[in-house]
Amino acid sequence: MECSGARNGSVSLMTETVSAVEGYTRRVVDDELDELLTGVSALALEGPKGVGKTATALGRAGSQHRLDRPETLQVLRADPERLLVGPPPVLIDEWQLLPSSWDLVRRAVDHDASPARFLLTGSASPSGAPTHTGAGRIVPVRMRPMSLAERGMKPTVSLADLLTGRRQPVTGLTEVALSDYVDEILAGGFPALRGLPPRALRAQLDGYLQRVIDREFPEQGVTLRRPDTLRAWMRAYAAATSTTASYEVLRDAATPGVGNKPAKSTTLPWRDILTRLWLLDPVPAWLPSRNVFKELASGEKHQLVDPALAARLLNVTADKLLQGEASGPSIPRDGTLLGALFEGLVALNLRVYAQASEASVRHVRTHRGDREVDFIIDGGDGVVAVEVKLSATVDERDLTHVKWLQKTLGDELRDAVVLTTGTEAYRRKDGIAVVPAALLGP
Predict the structure, then answer these.
(1) Which residues is 120 bridged to in the sheet?
(2) How many CA atoms lie within 13 A of 134 on its CB side?
(3) Chain mean pLDDT for the chain
(4) Contact, 201 vs 193, CB < 8 A?
């Protein structure tokens, strides 16, 4: 599989180390880690369970403390200072299981800020926050499930190039078809689950979600009197993928026909804990400080960290998605569930690729909903507009909102792209790029 190399053509010495880990597939975030570790003393690699944080960190670690092993955790609770001992970088895996480890590392960095001393991985933000944020000492780096490029697809169009505004020619061909995108939505980007037979995959995803309810919530200090109500809320959130439905709408969709609905004070902690577990990954609204827009909505667009989790919560199959069948709680949306999940797959990719360019991913929607652009990639000194179309072709009607944004922003809009399920990447005469989702990379 080919992935993006180190940025600007430079290859870090750590590339060999990570690549040497048996069976490891290099990730986009590896380039970021290589670059940061030349000047940063401590990094915290954050993301949900199963995205590959430990494997990525192990390729760099000089020594390790695996806190998810009960015997290791017991020893370190008795003698926490042992965490700081060992050849650097010292890996503290699942640090949140011993929250005091954060402050120990922070103080160690205060004493000696030499580069590449500590690597922390975390699958949750602990309910009891550390006594100090670690700002300026411990640099957080987000890790998400595998993007399409990391799954073996061959990108020909770089998001980093689009952000430059040079409007270079866009080319490339792919044989990836709509059915392949459906397969990728259902398969997900958790490395250990890749390649599993369909039934085993479904069982693993079911187990993953059940562990969240049975184990992760209690570890966050929440006792669930009615676990089925939480699962129903999670199904409603999955059904709201790629929408800006209010949390009242989600609550009502989760409990149709029930008079005694959960109070807001009950459901808000659920949302907060799922966010701390890195499972909710909503797309914030783009609210520029410049007064070029009127009446922009501030609501976030709902996304789970991987659309495979949404698909599993809704118990959908490839046939159901391709036939346009509705599934799960009723949530108002434009288009089909497949369209929403395809947008979720694109959201995952964009966030992985944008992070490599130190850019953020947002969306634009007016209060009335008459103007909307699926994604805004904000590079700080300019933006790229991204529309998502569950179609192999693009017509003028698909470009209405992008052209509105183009007219409003002028030169601040570095580029505009429509991501499709087609086979060829090209640039239209009006300058808008049309790119199959499989051909976009970092």
Answers:
(1) 44, 92
(2) 22
(3) 90
(4) yes
Percent helix, strand and coil across the chain, each rounded to 5?
A: 40, 15, 45
Look at the block and give the residue holding tokens 């993301």.
47
Residue position matching structure tokens 């590449």? 116
Structure tokens at 234: 């999670």
Query: Residues with Cβ < 8 Å from 430, sequence gap 6 or more?
Result: 399, 403
Question: Does 197 sit behind a cis peptide bond, omega within 30 degrees of 0 on the bond before it?
Answer: no
Residues 6+ apart with CB under 8 A from 56: 18, 24, 27, 29, 30, 33, 45, 143
- The gap from C-alpha 31 to its chain's centroid, in whole angstroms, comes to 17
Angular region, 249: left φ>0, alpha ψ -120 to 50, beta rest: alpha
CA distance 140 to 118: 12
Sign of CA dihedral 151, 153, 158, 162: negative
Kindly give, in sequence order, each residue whose CB lies less than 8 Å from that of residue 158, ignoring residues fewer than 6 positions away. Answer: 4, 441, 442
Listed by start position, the domains of the chain span 7-142, 157-441
Per-residue confidence band for 288, with pLDDT thresholds at 50, 70 and 90: confident
Contact between residue 119 and residue 94 where contact means Cβ atoms under 8 Å apart:
no
Amino acid letter, 351: R
For residue 17 the two structure tokens come to 């180390």
Length of the chain: 442
**What span, in angstroms and rounded, lies between the C-alpha atoms of 43 and 139?**
5
Amino acid identity for residue 86 in this structure:
G
Beta strands at 413-420 and 372-378: parallel, antiparallel or unpaired? unpaired
User: Which 8-state DSSP code applies to residue 94?
Assistant: T
Q: Going by C-beta distance under 8 Å and a sequence separation of 6 or more, which residues neighbour residue 136?
A: none
Q: How far apart are CA 2 and CA 399, in angstroms?
A: 32
* DSSP result, 119-151: EEEESS--SS--SS--TTTEEEEE--SPPTTTT
Residues 107-135, mean pLDDT to the nearest whole number: 83
Residues 6+ apart with CB under 8 A from 437: 148, 176, 181, 342, 345, 346, 349, 388, 419, 420, 421
CATH topology (fold) of 7-142? Rossmann fold (3.40.50)
pLDDT score of 131: 53
Given this model, what pLDDT does residue 3 score? Answer: 38
The phi and psi torsions of 234 (rounded to 5 degrees) equal -65, -35
